[in-house]
Here is the input.
Amino acid sequence: MLQRLDKALIRPVTGIPIIICIMIGVFLFVGRFVAQTVVDFTQSYLFGELYYNFIMSYATTFFDLDSFLGCLLFGEYGLLTMIPIYLFGLLLPLVFSFYFVMTLLQDSGIFHRISVLADKVFRAIGLSGGAIVPIVLGFGCVTAALISVGTLKSKREQLIASVLLCFSFPCSAQLTIVLAISSFLEIKYILLYFFTILTIFLLSGFILNFLIPGKSSKYIPRLPALVMPSITNVFNKTIRESKDFIIDATPSFIIGGALMAILHYTNSFVKIYKLFSPLTSGLLKLPDQATDLFLLSIIKKDVAAASLYSIVSQNIMTDFQITIALIVMTLFVPCFASAMVLFKDRGPLVAIIIYIACFLVGFTTGGLINIIFS
Here is the structure.
């Protein structure tokens, strides 16, 4: 059985359909089941409700929540509220599921065969076949996909993949909202959305491949025998990798959370709100409520996506305005969790450059589409 599967995977005619099915399975497991069902339980209920209520019961007794220390520790972006919820409620399930899938694919020998077949396709945008998993995971959860970028061989490919994931990948929450909103929109606006995102993805890949020195690494792996992996080994490796990631990520999250708490305590978000307003109402021709969408996207894109659905339900935006909002939200800066992964893995300078580039690309693209099609 394994020998027949091995031969089928190596041949493009049979291997590509099999690999597509495997990638769909990876997407459904990590991007849908874990990123939505499991994370909904761990983040919303286990940490967002049980842990949060427990920690706040003590916080209200011993701390003044309106003080700077109260805001820093227990506020909306608190080190003892938001950080544990994000690290353990959101990231840990994603990290664990990703390493579990990766270990299964690697130990079985399937991953090597997937990468070989995908290699030629990705070379045009500066990547190698090893980028197939991050690309697929990007449609489920960009944070999980950014975590997986570390498996790519060269720093060049890691950088290109990180930029592409931040630029043009709607997470599962956004995809869900797009599908839900499609019932409100004409088909031409749905096609405009997907055509724009695909164009930005390909154009960004071509430009990065041209500008960044070097070439895609030659992905000619030594194909190990196709085997049934040991579940014990898979779990041991998964636990070890997940533990290492959480230990490495914690300092970055603490710094990021403290910065957000300071901005919140000093009412700096009000100034940011005023800064955004000319862009949303002027350049994009969107109502004032759209400013909230982009501010929410900085923290968590699924919250912003849900907020957009609420706005759409109120019939205060035209179909064209909804499409513009969807495009800019997708191309806009990565959410807080993804940004922290970027800072940890790519370094502060690269992360800041990517962050600014996403901001510029998002609003520039939205503005151009508004000018061309309005």
Remarks:
- The chain has a mean pLDDT of 83.
- Residues 217 and 258 are 39 Å apart (CA to CA).
- The chain has one domain: 2-215+232-373.
- Residues 2-215+232-373 form one domain.
